[in-house]
Amino acid sequence: MAETLYEALGGEAPVTAISHAFYDEMELHEPALARLHPPFDGTIPHKARADFADFLQFWTGGPKQYLELRGHPRLGMRHAHLPIDAEMRDAWLRCMTFAVARSVPAGPGPEALIARMAEVAGFLQNVGRTDG
Asked: What residues contact residue 87 under an 8 Å CB cut-off, 6+ apart?
């Protein structure tokens, strides 16, 4: 049986570390992104970090706690109210790339995660896209 991305990343601890490092990086270096999260003051609360960790675990093939508690991710719907342009998309991906590099040893798992995240970031861009 093929290894899941969750397993390739090392399981719960590294995936949770990615979530926290992602928001740490956002708070430090991408304040415009951080201010999109309640309480809209540039800090990311623990609950948002925990929810994102649950999402990453589910989305990479790990435990389904996110799905059981919050339902289908519906990423497009959940982000539709945010004006996501190329600059915001790229800033988000920089935070994710940093978080993965900081949290997981280099290898095919992290490379696959960043590639998938780049696809998601492109999909969520809703301002200034030329492809429809």
From this structure: none
Contact between residue 127 and residue 121 where contact means Cβ atoms under 8 Å apart:
no
pTM of the model: 0.91
Average pLDDT, the chain: 93
Where do the structural domains in the chain lie, given as residue ranges?
A: 10-124
Locate 87 and state its tokens.
Answer: 């600059």
Q: How far is the C-alpha of 89 from the C-alpha of 105, rounded, in Å?
A: 24
CB 88 within 8 A of CB 35: no
The secondary structure of the chain in percent helix, strand, coil, rounded to multiples of 5, reads 65, 0, 35
User: Is domain 10-124 in CATH 3.90.1300.10, yes or no?
Assistant: no
pLDDT tens by residue, 7-33: 999 999 999 999 999 999 999 999 999
Burial (Cβ within 10 Å: 0-12, 13-18, ≥19) of residue 72:
exposed
